[in-house]
Amino acid sequence: MPKVSHDYITKKKNAILEAAISVCKVKPLYEITMRDIIKASGVSQGGIYRYYSDLDEILVAVINQVNTNADYTQAVDTIIENSSSPKESIKKLFTFLGEYIKENLSTVGKIQFELTIVFANNPEREEKILGNISENESGQYLVERIFSTIHEGISLGSFQPEVSLEDLFTFIMTSIDGIVRDVVLQKCYGMFQNSPIKFDETRQMETLCKSVLLLLGSK
Question: Is the model's pTM score more than 0.90?
Fold first, then answer.
């Protein structure tokens, strides 16, 4: 059998990965089978196992690829560096987050949401998958920079909080999680279609930002 080059293997694995990502956009992560990926990639059943040992290895590769593309820590730093005040930083960070969610909802948002369902129903897969995932901490980093910016604004006298910082930070985190969850449920799963409320992540983040600034004693 002729020797296969490293470049050939890489191209084949990437092609399978792209096919798997396309499947993830239209089918819940917890319902995806190897047959779905074989069909989308055009690779035979015997062929696909030459590059990936099982479905979970492919899902790990998908999640790592999505996490790599979702690294926006540098963008967060740039926003803060180019802002003239803590208030401007906060407004720009919430705007950035809303736009980011809108652009990446079908991949990052959907996959992260569904991964929690996979783990809840298959605890044994959680250990196997999590142990091989390259963590993306961009979301946590953005929230931490919002918190540090709030502390800076308080020290400068720009903010006079109306509530405790503990309550404010909890409000911010749970609100962001709730917005992401409801937007994913409506736009990726068709839920709340009969509701008069249409979830718009950018507008909701703008409203959340205004609420946070009011709680900080700033309009």
Answer: no
- Buried b vs exposed e over 97-108: b needs ≥16 C-beta within 10 Å? bbebbeebbebb
Integer angstrom CA distances of residue 158 from 81, 88, 112, 217: 18, 11, 36, 8
How far is the CA of 210 from the CAs of 34, 41, 88, 91, 215, in angstroms? Answer: 46, 46, 12, 8, 9
pLDDT digits (tens, 9 = 90+) for 164-214: 999 999 999 999 989 988 888 888 887 776 777 777 899 999 999 999 999
Percentage helix, strand, coil for the chain under 3-state DSSP, each rounded to 5: 75, 0, 25
The amino acid sitting at 149 is T
Count Cα atoms within 13 angstroms, Cβ side, for 63: 21
